[in-house]
Design goal:
Chain lengths: ~120, ~120
Amino acid sequence: MIEHQDRALQVALEYYGAWASKDLEQTMSFIADDVVCDAPAGRIEGARAYRGFLESFFQLLERAELIASFGDDETAMLLYDNETVPVPSAPSVGHFTVQDGKITRIRFIFDRVPYEAAARTRQAL
Amino acid sequence: MIEHQDRALQVALEYYGAWASKDLEQTMSFIADDVVCDAPAGRIEGARAYRGFLESFFQLLERAELIASFGDDETAMLLYDNETVPVPSAPSVGHFTVQDGKITRIRFIFDRVPYEAAARTRQAL
């Protein structure tokens, strides 16, 4: 019998694949109804709010490249580089907690400064 | 014979322990002479420049709390929350590449916005 010891990592990687393809329904299929997500700009609570957050971000995302992925049965951590409309390279980390195949808790870590600088440039044009 | 498969993680955790204690010499003992570090503000090259970067940061660091750590023989990724003089909670990630027991490559990911906001507040006082 093969004992998998990285179930959370597998879910996080499947989530990431759907997310990088900007497949909203597939991405949301991995998200628990009561998901809690801490992003640099603040906390997002519940699948409905998270869907809105994804919809906004998918409009900016051009491409994502996975740099590193680690995890075990409960949690996983992914490092990826986002190419977005305003920022050509935005290294970002997601830390995911998984229960019963669904993501219940997310922490996103990335630097908002390049996004804010791009927004100021757009305003100045 | 026990086969360790997480040598990079062990080095990263020892580095982190020294770093969280603000032990400059011990922290630097894990850094390769030709280290390359990509931080949000830019690239730091070489152990001498990295030592200067640490000295500056240690003046701000009050406490660090490790949230998650993963790794294998080549790389490791740590998520921790920094309590600093200007910012009470700054979730941060380090991704480390280790060769022959020394850290040769680091990527740091954190949000600079709270640090910049704190700097503006200080200037306004």
